[in-house]
Structures are given as structure tokens and as C-alpha cells.
Design brief:
The chain has 2 helices and 10 strands, in the order ααββββββββββ. It is α+β, with helices and mostly antiparallel strands. The chain has 2 domains: about 120 residues, Thrombin, subunit H (Beta Barrel), CATH 2.40.10; about 70 residues, no CATH class. It has a 6-stranded antiparallel beta sheet, with no helix packed on it. It has a 4-stranded mixed beta sheet with strand order 7-8-9-10, with no helix packed on it. It starts with a helix and ends with a strand.
């Protein structure tokens, strides 16, 4: 009977090589965070599931983002990366952060190849506002950008302009997923441009 108890205890406490590596990696990252001067204390993240409530203040570093196509740093005013102390930190796409007097949205999150929990965030440059079925004003931070779709110019009677459409990047949540085609949204839409909403 004693041998079975020993074996049962062993199974409960046994670690796989993966678990053992993650524990060692967490100790290493924790030590790095203890001996640093770049720890952010002014960054707040939205609660999960998405609730637009910014009470949590995760231990993290803020870095720059490298464009994979050019190898150059993207504008630090609009693109940043976050590196979290906790290797299990969850930063799903669409999560909002408040930092540096702006709202930021996660557009790229941690992959299995990374040894630290990280995500890329983009600064929201506008607000998406509309009326819901009850007549209430709903608004969420978003990114609005003009995306070129063709190298050929678009010719109208009055002007010649580039073929493009407007992309709106916003969190896909219970409210925004109710947006339907041709819903009047309180924003300026350029003439001859198609508006495409990208939920993340």
C-alpha cells in the first residue's frame, strides 16, 4: 500500500520537460523585471471578457515594432509592443489598453514560438460612434486609415484620386458586431471610398 501512495504522490508532482522549461523561463524573466528601469507603471488594460474597464495594471515593458517587410522600425507614435512579466499573460486581439493619454488596441498577439508573453498594439486615432436600437449612443476607440487598393487612378468628373477604401479597425464585441451595412456612423467618409470595418 505504501508503494502505491509513493507512486501516486510522484504522479501528482511530476513535471514534463515543457513544464520544467517554462518554470525556469519564468524565473529568468521575473529576475529581468526585478533589475530594470523600464518597467511601465502607467499602462492599464481592459478586463476580460471585453468590458472597457481599465483597472488592471500589468507588469510590462513597452518597446518598438519592426516592420517585417522593410526591417525598419514602425512609427513609435502609433505602433508599440508590450512584453509581460507573466509568461501566461493573456493579451488577445482586440483588447484595449490605456497608455500615454491614448487608447491602444491589440492587433497581434503572442505566438507559440515566443519565449515571453508579448503583443503588438496600435494607437486608436478616432472614435466609432453610432446609435443602437434603443437610441443610445455607443462609442469605441478605433483606427481609421485610408488603404490603397490599386495603383491606377480613379477618375471622376471633377477630380482624379487614388483607388482606395477606408479601413476601420475596432474591437469585435457584443456591441460592435451589431453594426450592419449602411448604418450611419458619426465620422467623415471621403467621396468615392468604400468603408470596410475590420473586427479584431
Amino acid at each position: 500500500m505504501g508503494k502505491l501512495e509513493f507512486y501516486s504522490n510522484y504522479l501528482q508532482n511530476a513535471k514534463t520537460p515543457n513544464q520544467d522549461w517554462r518554470n525556469l523561463q519564468q524565473e529568468f524573466v521575473s529576475e529581468m523585471f526585478e533589475n530594470t528601469t523600464i518597467l511601465r507603471t502607467d499602462l492599464y488594460e481592459e478586463g476580460l471578457p471585453f468590458d472597457f474597464d481599465f483597472k488592471s495594471n500589468p507588469e510590462c515593458w513597452v518597446g518598438t515594432v519592426i516592420d517585417v517587410t522593410t526591417g525598419l522600425t514602425k512609427s513609435a507614435d502609433d505602433y508599440r509592443s508590450l512584453y509581460f512579466k507573466n509568461l501566461e499573460h493573456d493579451a488577445p486581439r482586440g483588447r484595449y489598453y490605456k497608455w500615454n493619454d491614448n487608447y491602444w488596441i491589440v492587433y497581434e498577439t503572442t505566438t507559440d514560438l515566443e519565449t515571453i508573453a508579448t503583443c503588438n498594439i496600435r494607437r486608436c486615432n478616432n472614435w466609432l460612434k453610432w446609435l443602437n436600437d434603443k437610441g443610445e449612443v455607443i462609442q469605441y476607440p478605433c483606427v481609421i486609415e485610408n488603404t490603397l487598393t490599386s495603383a491606377n487612378a480613379q477618375v471622376a468628373k471633377v477630380i482624379t484620386q487614388a483607388n482606395s477604401h477606408i479601413d476601420i479597425i475596432v474591437q469585435g464585441n457584443e456591441e460592435t458586431l451589431k453594426i450592419y451595412k449602411n448604418l450611419r456612423i458619426n465620422k467623415i467618409v471621403h467621396n468615392h471610398c468604400e468603408m470596410i470595418i475590420k473586427y479584431i
